Structures are given as structure tokens and as C-alpha cells.
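S.,

Sequence below, as promised.
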Amino acid sequence: MSWLKTLKNILDRALEGLVMVVVAVLVLDVLWQVFTRFILNDPSTWTEELAVFMLIWVSLLGAAVALNRGAHLGIDYFVGKLPYKARLSTEVVVFFCVATFSFLVMILGGLDLVASTLELGQESPALRVKMGYVYLAVPISGFFLTLYGAIGLVERLQRLFSIVNDK
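The prediction came back faster than expected:
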């Protein structure tokens, strides 16, 4: 089991590192865009498109980082008022839904989207990047969301079963 934790830690660090790199590129891109527009009075033609692509990647990958850290926004006022066992049961349902949605829609649907887009050869207008590579953010983030959703599900089920077995 320790090799699984090691693998998860490697994946966590890789994902967080990738998000940091994408944010850094996004910041530099926007700074260049502002510089060319207001200082040089000759706006760059590609910076806005790159910013949109980087925002797509950082938001989708950032959602996976947030799920892993338990930092997702949520309305937990009523769930927080529930008894511990009911709260765990609710979390089991939530993590199951997250993992299932992420697998079916983001991984399977995302891979189909990427394959279809690459097959059609669709390119972005300014950067001439194949849009399939931009859309890779969907299945990659779906993989991490599925992984973290499954881990959260297993952890909550273990806690729930330990409560049931203690009685």
C-alpha cells in the first residue's frame, strides 16, 4: 500500500507543478498583452487566445487540485448540522457522483472530443494550435477528478464501516 501513497504523492506534485506552470504562463501572457496594447500601442494578436487556453487548463486542473485538498466550494451548512454518520453517508454519495461524472463525461467524453477534434484537424485562428491539444485538459483533469473522487469515496466508506463495526 505504501507504493500507492508514493504514486499518489508523485501525481499530486506533478499536477500542482503543472498548475503552477500554467498560471505562470498565463500571468506572463497577460502582462505581455497589456504591455503591447498600452505601452507599444500595437496589441499582440495571439496573447488573448493563449490566455483563454491557459485559463481553460488552469481552471480544470485547479478543480482537481481543490478536490484533492478538500478546498472545493460547497454549501455545507446543512450537511455540517447532520450527525457524523449521516454526514459521512452524504459525502459517500457526493464522492460517488463526482467520480462517476468525471469518469463518464470528462474522461470518456473528453477522449472522444479530443479524438474527433484532432481527426477534423481544427486549429485555433491566431496560434494555429490543434484544438484537440487544448481540449486535452478535459480528460486529463477528469482522470485526476476521478482518482481523487474514488480516493475520497473509499476513505469515507472505510470511516463509515468502522463506525458500523464498532457498534
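The mean pLDDT is 93.

Coffee later?
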